[in-house]
Amino acid sequence: MILRIQLCYLHAVKVKGRSEIGFVSGFNVLIGPNGSGKSTVLRALYECDQCRIERSGTSGVRYFNAETMNPHAPSGPPGDMRNMILRTRGIFSSHGEIMKDALTTLPLGKGETVLLDEPESGQDAGSVQRIRQGFDAICRKGGQVIAATHHPFLLRDANIIELVPKYAEELRAMYCRSLC
């Protein structure tokens, strides 16, 4: 499980206003407008040797960005069998179906972390609700979820990490005003 990250200089200059970020067990969401550094934080957590990451235990970290699973634009070797299956399904599936397949096939154990970059992208309201239920199930089993998002439904009962102060308030006001 990831407890904290101290961003290296390269990543800190790309993340608005934060060079150190703490996480809790369970469901964490990174929020902020486009360009605020949400995806940068996720990539730093997954692959930067220069950032200082404090962990609890030695559990694994899995990173999922729907674009990395796009079989038409692979960014490297397919990896393990599970990734190969997801990429093959992606040839015949929509973005939303790829995300749902990935979430249902991730074998996460207690203390493991899954990083997701805008999992609501390409999803209808019912699918976003099912994705959130999947996150809740992962957390009930002792896993940790860290997601970058803009979707207000994913903010409910989550540890909200604002990269731009008062962004959650702005999201809620905008969506409540337009949907209520």
Protein model, in words:
By secondary structure, the chain is an alpha/beta fold. 36% of the residues lie in helices and 20% in strands. The chain has six helices and eight strands; from the N terminus they run βαββαββααβαββα. The strands form two sheets. The chain has a five-stranded parallel β-sheet. Strands 2-1-4 form a three-stranded antiparallel β-sheet, with no helix packed on it. Strand 6 (113-117), helix 5 (125-140) and strand 7 form a beta-alpha-beta unit. It is globular. The model has no long low-confidence stretch (mean pLDDT 81).
Outline the fold blueprint:
Blueprint: E1 2-6, H1 9-12, E2 20-22, E3 27-31, H2 38-47, E4 52-55, E5 61-65, H3 81-91, H4 95-105, E6 113-117, H5 125-140, E7 144-148, E8 159-162, H6 167-179
Parallel strand pairs: 3-7, 3-8, 5-6, 6-7
Antiparallel strand pairs: 1-2, 1-4
Helix pairs in contact: 3-4, 4-5
Quick structural summary:
Helix content is 36%, strand content 20%. With 180 residues, it is of the alpha/beta class. The termini are far apart.
